[in-house]
Amino acid sequence: MEERKKYFCVVGPGKSGTTTLYNHIINNTQVAYYSWKETNFLIEPERFQHSFDNLRKSLTNYREGADIIDASPEYYGMPAKVERNIELVPRLEYEVIAIIGRRDPVDRLVSHIEHNISHGVEQRPLTQVLENILEDKLEDNDFYLMRHIRQEKTEVAFSRIFDRVYFFDVGVDGIDASDFLREQKIPAPESGLITKKMNQKYSPRFKILQRLDTRPPRLLRVFGRFFSTNFKQAVRNRLRRANKVEFHPIGNDQTYAKELAAQVIVKKELE
Predict the structure, then answer these.
(1) Beta bridge mates, 164
(2) First to last CA, the chain
(3) How far apart are CA 12 and CA 229, in angstroms?
(4) What is the spatial distance between Cα 260 and Cα 266, in angstroms, rounded to a whole number?
(5) Helix-helix angle 203-210:216-223, to 10 degrees
(6) SS in 3 state form for 15-30?
(7) How far apart are CA 152 and CA 135, in angstroms?
(8) Which end of the chain lies in a sparser environment, N or C, as judged by fewer CB atoms within 10 Å?
C-alpha cells in the first residue's frame, strides 16, 4: 500500500509558538502551505466550498504528492467542529497529524495582551488589563482567558480525532519539538531549540519594502491584506526600528504583570 501523505495541523492556544514552529517547517521542507498560514479549513470549510480539492488549489507551491501544513490555532478551542469536518480530508490519501503547543499559561496570557497592545488592538497598559480582568471589569474577559487555560479535554479529544498527535513545549529559550522533528525527518537547529525569526519564504518582499521608505503606514494599509502575518510583522518591526510608526507602550513592570497574570489564572481555575 502506498504511504499516505501528511496533513500537518499546528494548533494550540494563542501565543503558544504555533507560528514559529510553522515557519521552521516550511523553511526546512517542501511542504505546501497557505499564504495566510491559517486556513481554518477544519472549522470553516465553507470558505473552500467544503472541498479539500479547493483547499489544495489555494495552497502556495502545491504539487501532486506534496505534504500539507495548516497552522490554525483556533482548532484548539473547537474540537467538536474539527471532529465533524475532519472527514472532508481524504483519509486514505492523507495522514492527519496534530502538533499541539504547550506554554506556561502565565507567560502565554501576558504575551497575548502584549501582542494586542503592540498591534493597536488593546489600548490599555498591560498591568491595567490584568487588573481589570481580576476585578471583572472587562466585558471581553473570555477573549483573553478562554485560550489560556490548558484544556486537557481538548488534548484527549484530539488524540482520538487525529491519526497522530505530537506535543511541543515553549520555553524562555525557544521551542522544543524534538520528537516531532525527529520522527518526521525534519532538520532541527543545532541547539535543538527553534527560535523565533522571520519567515525566509517572504524575505524577497520584505527586501522590496525596505527600499520604500515613503509613507510606510500607508503602504501597510494598502498591502497588509495581501501578505502573510509573518511578513506584516516583519514590516512592522522594520518601521519600529526606523521610528516611522508610533506603537502603544506595553508597560515596563514585567514582574508585577506576571504576578497579576498568575492570580488571573488561579482565579479562573477555581471557578
Answers:
(1) 97
(2) 51
(3) 17
(4) 10
(5) 150
(6) CCCHHHHHHHHHHHCC
(7) 27
(8) N
Please choose, from the candidates 98, 108, 109, the residue with its C-alpha nearest in 3D space to the C-alpha of residue 177.
98
Q: Which three cell numbers stand for residue 164?
A: 497522530
In the chain, which ranges are continuous DSSP H helix?
18-28, 52-57, 79-85, 105-118, 126-134, 141-145, 152-161, 178-183, 203-210, 216-223, 229-241, 254-270
Quote the Cα angle for 100-115-99, to 5°: 10
The β-bridge relationship of strands 164-171 and 174-176 is antiparallel
Cell 515596563 -> residue: 252
For the chain, helix (H) and strand (E) counts, in that order, are 12, 6
CB of 24 within 8 A of CB of 194?
Answer: yes
Amino acid making up residue 232: K
Residue 207 CB partners (closer than 8 Å, separation 6+): none
202 in helix, strand or coil?
Answer: helix
Q: 6-39 in b/e burial notation, b at 16+ Cβ within 10 A?
A: bbbbbbbbbbbbbbbbbbbbbeebebbbbebbbb
Dump pLDDT digits (tens) for 159-206.
999 999 999 999 888 999 999 999 999 999 988 899 875 444 444 444
Q: Kindly state the cell numbers that stand for 27.
A: 523553511
CB 137 within 8 A of CB 53: no
List, in order of start, the domains of the chain with CATH numbers: 5-270 (3.40.50)
